[in-house]
Amino acid sequence: MINLNGVNQLYGGTQILWDLDLQIAKGSCTCIMGRNGVGKTTLLKCLMGLLPVTSGKLLLDGDDFTRKTAESRAHNGIGYVPQGRDIFPLLTVEENLRVGLGARPDKAKEIPGRIFELFPVLNEMMHRRGGDLSGGQQQQLAIGRALVIDPKVLILDEPNEGIQPNIVKQIGDVITKLNEEENMTVILVEQKLGFARRVGKDFRLMEKGRVVASGPMTDLSDELIAKHLAV
Ligand SMILES: Nc1ncnc2c1ncn2[C@@H]1O[C@H](COP(=O)(O)OP(=O)(O)O)[C@@H](O)[C@H]1O
Ligand SMILES: [Mg+2]
Questions:
Q1: How far apart are the CA of 40 and the centre of ligand 2, in A?
Q2: HSE (CB half, 13 Å, CA atoms) of 145?
Q3: pTM, entire model
Protein backbone atom coordinates (compact mmCIF):
# COMPACT_ATOMS: atom_id res chain seq x y z
CA MET A 1 0.00 0.00 0.00
CA ILE A 2 2.94 2.32 0.66
CA ASN A 3 5.92 2.16 -1.65
CA LEU A 4 9.01 4.31 -1.50
CA ASN A 5 11.33 3.86 -4.44
CA GLY A 6 14.86 5.23 -4.54
CA VAL A 7 14.20 8.11 -2.15
CA ASN A 8 17.00 10.60 -1.53
CA GLN A 9 16.68 13.44 0.95
CA LEU A 10 19.09 16.23 1.75
CA TYR A 11 19.07 18.73 4.63
CA GLY A 12 20.95 21.64 3.14
CA GLY A 13 24.15 20.05 1.93
CA THR A 14 23.92 16.88 4.01
CA GLN A 15 22.33 13.81 2.50
CA ILE A 16 20.23 11.91 5.06
CA LEU A 17 18.27 9.32 3.02
CA TRP A 18 20.13 7.38 0.33
CA ASP A 19 18.24 5.52 -2.42
CA LEU A 20 15.83 4.28 0.19
CA ASP A 21 13.31 1.60 -0.76
CA LEU A 22 10.46 0.68 1.54
CA GLN A 23 7.33 -1.41 1.04
CA ILE A 24 4.57 -1.45 3.60
CA ALA A 25 1.69 -3.90 3.09
CA LYS A 26 -1.91 -3.05 3.89
CA GLY A 27 -2.86 -4.19 7.38
CA SER A 28 0.74 -4.73 8.51
CA CYS A 29 2.31 -3.46 11.71
CA THR A 30 5.87 -2.55 10.82
CA CYS A 31 8.54 -1.40 13.20
CA ILE A 32 11.26 0.82 11.78
CA MET A 33 14.40 0.38 13.81
CA GLY A 34 17.92 1.69 13.84
CA ARG A 35 20.33 3.67 15.95
CA ASN A 36 19.99 7.38 16.67
CA GLY A 37 20.60 9.58 13.66
CA VAL A 38 20.14 6.93 10.92
CA GLY A 39 17.21 8.89 9.44
CA LYS A 40 14.07 7.29 10.91
CA THR A 41 12.34 10.59 11.72
CA THR A 42 13.42 12.05 8.38
CA LEU A 43 11.86 9.05 6.63
CA LEU A 44 8.55 9.50 8.46
CA LYS A 45 8.52 13.24 7.69
CA CYS A 46 9.04 12.44 4.01
CA LEU A 47 6.19 9.92 4.18
CA MET A 48 3.98 12.57 5.75
CA GLY A 49 4.99 15.33 3.32
CA LEU A 50 6.58 17.49 6.03
CA LEU A 51 9.92 17.33 4.25
CA PRO A 52 10.32 17.28 0.47
CA VAL A 53 12.25 14.38 -1.03
CA THR A 54 15.08 15.38 -3.33
CA SER A 55 14.46 12.49 -5.71
CA GLY A 56 12.63 9.18 -5.80
CA LYS A 57 8.96 8.26 -5.65
CA LEU A 58 6.31 7.73 -3.01
CA LEU A 59 3.22 5.70 -3.95
CA LEU A 60 0.09 5.31 -1.85
CA ASP A 61 -2.17 2.53 -3.15
CA GLY A 62 -0.44 2.91 -6.50
CA ASP A 63 -1.00 6.70 -6.75
CA ASP A 64 1.99 9.00 -6.94
CA PHE A 65 2.05 11.09 -3.74
CA THR A 66 5.62 12.32 -4.04
CA ARG A 67 4.65 16.00 -4.43
CA LYS A 68 1.40 16.02 -2.43
CA THR A 69 1.11 18.25 0.62
CA ALA A 70 0.95 16.93 4.18
CA GLU A 71 -2.66 18.11 4.30
CA SER A 72 -3.68 16.05 1.29
CA ARG A 73 -1.92 13.01 2.73
CA ALA A 74 -3.95 13.42 5.91
CA HIS A 75 -7.09 13.70 3.75
CA ASN A 76 -6.09 10.42 2.16
CA GLY A 77 -5.97 8.72 5.53
CA ILE A 78 -2.42 9.00 6.83
CA GLY A 79 -2.33 9.84 10.54
CA TYR A 80 0.91 10.98 12.15
CA VAL A 81 2.12 11.11 15.75
CA PRO A 82 5.37 13.09 15.72
CA GLN A 83 8.40 12.40 17.89
CA GLY A 84 8.14 14.54 21.02
CA ARG A 85 4.32 14.58 20.72
CA ASP A 86 3.91 18.24 19.72
CA ILE A 87 0.53 18.80 21.29
CA PHE A 88 -0.67 22.37 21.87
CA PRO A 89 0.12 23.03 25.56
CA LEU A 90 -2.23 26.00 25.96
CA LEU A 91 -5.23 24.35 24.29
CA THR A 92 -7.48 21.97 26.21
CA VAL A 93 -7.58 18.27 25.44
CA GLU A 94 -10.84 18.80 23.58
CA GLU A 95 -9.39 21.68 21.56
CA ASN A 96 -6.31 19.64 20.70
CA LEU A 97 -8.55 16.86 19.38
CA ARG A 98 -10.70 19.34 17.44
CA VAL A 99 -7.61 20.60 15.62
CA GLY A 100 -7.37 17.09 14.15
CA LEU A 101 -10.98 17.28 12.90
CA GLY A 102 -9.96 19.96 10.40
CA ALA A 103 -8.11 17.32 8.39
CA ARG A 104 -11.19 15.09 7.95
CA PRO A 105 -12.48 15.04 4.38
CA ASP A 106 -16.11 14.77 5.59
CA LYS A 107 -15.80 17.90 7.80
CA ALA A 108 -17.38 16.02 10.73
CA LYS A 109 -17.88 18.25 13.78
CA GLU A 110 -17.79 15.57 16.48
CA ILE A 111 -14.72 13.89 17.92
CA PRO A 112 -15.20 10.14 17.27
CA GLY A 113 -16.28 8.44 20.52
CA ARG A 114 -13.93 5.56 19.75
CA ILE A 115 -11.00 7.73 20.84
CA PHE A 116 -12.40 7.99 24.35
CA GLU A 117 -13.02 4.23 24.45
CA LEU A 118 -9.37 3.67 23.57
CA PHE A 119 -8.09 6.40 25.91
CA PRO A 120 -10.64 6.97 28.71
CA VAL A 121 -8.20 9.38 30.37
CA LEU A 122 -8.81 11.88 27.54
CA ASN A 123 -12.47 11.97 28.44
CA GLU A 124 -11.65 12.56 32.10
CA MET A 125 -9.19 15.33 31.19
CA MET A 126 -11.31 16.89 28.42
CA HIS A 127 -11.12 20.45 29.80
CA ARG A 128 -7.55 20.37 31.09
CA ARG A 129 -4.85 22.14 29.15
CA GLY A 130 -2.55 19.87 27.15
CA GLY A 131 0.49 21.27 28.93
CA ASP A 132 -0.92 20.26 32.32
CA LEU A 133 -1.09 16.55 31.40
CA SER A 134 1.65 14.06 32.29
CA GLY A 135 4.03 12.97 29.52
CA GLY A 136 2.14 9.71 29.07
CA GLN A 137 -1.22 11.48 28.90
CA GLN A 138 0.18 13.93 26.34
CA GLN A 139 1.30 10.97 24.24
CA GLN A 140 -2.19 9.46 24.45
CA LEU A 141 -3.56 12.84 23.37
CA ALA A 142 -1.16 12.97 20.42
CA ILE A 143 -2.27 9.50 19.32
CA GLY A 144 -5.93 10.45 19.86
CA ARG A 145 -5.45 13.55 17.72
CA ALA A 146 -4.01 11.43 14.89
CA LEU A 147 -6.98 9.03 15.18
CA VAL A 148 -9.53 11.82 14.78
CA ILE A 149 -9.32 11.45 10.98
CA ASP A 150 -10.03 7.66 11.12
CA PRO A 151 -6.72 7.00 9.38
CA LYS A 152 -6.01 3.99 7.17
CA VAL A 153 -2.35 4.29 8.08
CA LEU A 154 -1.06 5.37 11.48
CA ILE A 155 2.54 6.53 11.72
CA LEU A 156 4.10 6.84 15.18
CA ASP A 157 7.57 8.18 15.93
CA GLU A 158 8.95 6.79 19.21
CA PRO A 159 5.67 7.00 21.14
CA ASN A 160 7.26 5.61 24.30
CA GLU A 161 10.14 8.02 24.71
CA GLY A 162 10.25 9.15 28.34
CA ILE A 163 6.93 7.58 29.37
CA GLN A 164 6.12 5.56 32.47
CA PRO A 165 5.85 1.75 31.95
CA ASN A 166 2.12 1.34 32.67
CA ILE A 167 1.24 3.85 29.94
CA VAL A 168 3.74 2.25 27.55
CA LYS A 169 1.80 -0.99 28.04
CA GLN A 170 -1.55 0.73 27.35
CA ILE A 171 -0.20 2.40 24.22
CA GLY A 172 1.11 -0.96 22.97
CA ASP A 173 -2.29 -2.56 23.55
CA VAL A 174 -4.06 0.25 21.65
CA ILE A 175 -1.68 -0.09 18.69
CA THR A 176 -2.28 -3.86 18.59
CA LYS A 177 -6.05 -3.37 18.83
CA LEU A 178 -6.09 -0.84 15.97
CA ASN A 179 -3.97 -3.11 13.83
CA GLU A 180 -5.69 -6.42 14.57
CA GLU A 181 -9.30 -5.41 15.13
CA GLU A 182 -9.59 -2.44 12.77
CA ASN A 183 -7.04 -3.61 10.21
CA MET A 184 -5.25 -0.28 10.44
CA THR A 185 -1.80 -0.26 8.85
CA VAL A 186 0.75 0.82 11.44
CA ILE A 187 4.27 2.17 10.91
CA LEU A 188 6.08 2.53 14.19
CA VAL A 189 9.54 3.87 14.92
CA GLU A 190 10.70 2.19 18.10
CA GLN A 191 14.06 1.85 19.81
CA LYS A 192 12.95 -0.40 22.66
CA LEU A 193 13.45 -3.96 21.51
CA GLY A 194 10.93 -5.54 23.90
CA PHE A 195 8.16 -3.21 22.76
CA ALA A 196 9.08 -3.62 19.10
CA ARG A 197 8.93 -7.40 19.43
CA ARG A 198 5.63 -7.36 21.31
CA VAL A 199 3.80 -4.90 19.08
CA GLY A 200 5.51 -5.10 15.66
CA LYS A 201 4.73 -7.92 13.22
CA ASP A 202 7.43 -6.92 10.73
CA PHE A 203 10.66 -4.98 11.00
CA ARG A 204 12.78 -2.73 8.82
CA LEU A 205 16.30 -1.98 9.98
CA MET A 206 17.92 1.28 8.93
CA GLU A 207 21.57 2.18 8.72
CA LYS A 208 22.92 5.48 7.32
CA GLY A 209 19.71 6.49 5.55
CA ARG A 210 18.95 3.13 3.94
CA VAL A 211 16.84 0.09 4.78
CA VAL A 212 19.43 -2.65 5.23
CA ALA A 213 17.32 -5.55 6.53
CA SER A 214 13.63 -6.42 6.67
CA GLY A 215 11.32 -9.32 7.40
CA PRO A 216 8.81 -10.69 9.88
CA MET A 217 9.63 -9.78 13.49
CA THR A 218 10.45 -13.43 14.23
CA ASP A 219 13.43 -13.08 11.84
CA LEU A 220 14.99 -10.24 13.83
CA SER A 221 18.03 -12.23 14.95
CA ASP A 222 20.57 -11.51 17.67
CA GLU A 223 23.10 -11.12 14.89
CA LEU A 224 21.08 -8.33 13.21
CA ILE A 225 20.54 -6.65 16.57
CA ALA A 226 24.26 -6.75 17.38
CA LYS A 227 25.11 -5.38 13.95
CA HIS A 228 22.54 -2.61 13.57
CA LEU A 229 21.06 -1.79 16.99
CA ALA A 230 23.56 -2.38 19.76
CA VAL A 231 25.58 0.68 20.73
N1 LIG B 1 16.48 20.01 10.73
C2 LIG B 1 17.64 19.38 10.47
N3 LIG B 1 18.65 20.02 9.82
C4 LIG B 1 19.80 19.40 9.54
N5 LIG B 1 20.07 18.12 9.86
C6 LIG B 1 19.12 17.43 10.52
C7 LIG B 1 17.85 18.02 10.85
N8 LIG B 1 17.11 17.07 11.49
C9 LIG B 1 17.88 15.97 11.56
N10 LIG B 1 19.08 16.18 10.98
C11 LIG B 1 20.17 15.17 10.84
O12 LIG B 1 19.67 14.13 10.03
C13 LIG B 1 20.15 12.87 10.50
C14 LIG B 1 18.98 11.94 10.70
O15 LIG B 1 18.15 12.45 11.73
P16 LIG B 1 16.80 11.77 12.14
O17 LIG B 1 16.01 11.50 10.93
O18 LIG B 1 16.20 12.62 13.19
O19 LIG B 1 17.33 10.37 12.76
P20 LIG B 1 16.64 9.35 13.76
O21 LIG B 1 15.20 9.68 13.85
O22 LIG B 1 16.93 8.01 13.15
O23 LIG B 1 17.35 9.50 15.07
C24 LIG B 1 20.95 13.15 11.76
O25 LIG B 1 22.31 13.11 11.42
C26 LIG B 1 20.52 14.53 12.16
O27 LIG B 1 21.59 15.19 12.79
MG1 LIG C 1 13.97 10.22 15.44
A1: 5
A2: 27
A3: 0.94
